[in-house]
User: Fold this.
Amino acid sequence: MLIDWFTVIAQVVNFLVLVWLLKRFLYAPILNAIDAREKRIAAELADADARKDEAQKERDEFKHKNEEFDQQRASLLSKATLDAQSERQRLLEDARMESEGLRARQQEALRNDYQNLKEDIIGRTRDEVFAIARKALNDLATVNLEEHMVEVFIHRCRALHEEEIKALQYAFKAATEPARVRSTFPLQAEQQKAIELAAREVFAFAGQFHFEISPDLVSGIELSVNGHEVAWSIADYLLELEKNVGEHLIVQPRPVVQKESNPDESKPEAQPES
Assistant:
């Protein structure tokens, strides 16, 4: 069989031309389209990944902001709670101080009223007792009241304790001024001499005497020198009466009972005695 080389060569050339034509006009556009589609798909995937990353970033940022908001809310709530507790404590303390101040003023007013009442009762009692005692002594005594007071005063001087006598002797010996004798009533010459004699005997006083009238002694006699004195008067008995009357007149203020509404509130303090 003979080979027609012209035909073979022509077919080869045709095949090559066909392949070139196919590659040039068919495969190249298809490959380019495929490449373009792959690039577009890759770009879309990259854009999707970028959007996904951005969405994740936004979600993380939103979560972080929510956490910060929760922390701020908790902090503000805690601060508001502490401020409310502090304000409540301050108001309770102010109320307690105001209550204590009012109670103290009430107690002070009660003590003043009691003291005024006590002084008034004591003053009236003293006046009445003094008037009754003076009248009774004047009516019952064999000597007048003034002479009897002088005798009682001299007896009081002689009845002093040894330590008191020594202290008065020292004071009288060191005296550079006359001894003062104060009395509610004018002393007669015999009464003055009796007092001088008793003072010289008991206190070893060798100085002069100065007699004066002092109604505030409440029927009594007082002998003094250099700040030291010995005295007797009805006031001594009235002072004892005043003490006894005062003890019986002590008014105990009623404690203020406070309603315990909260353990934080201060408990009422005990009321001091008048």
User: Anything to note?
Assistant: Residues 251-274 have pLDDT under 50 and may be disordered. Residues 5-140 form the longest helix (136 residues). Strands lie at 179-183, 209-213, 220-225, 228-233. Residues 222 and 237 are 15 Å apart (CA to CA).
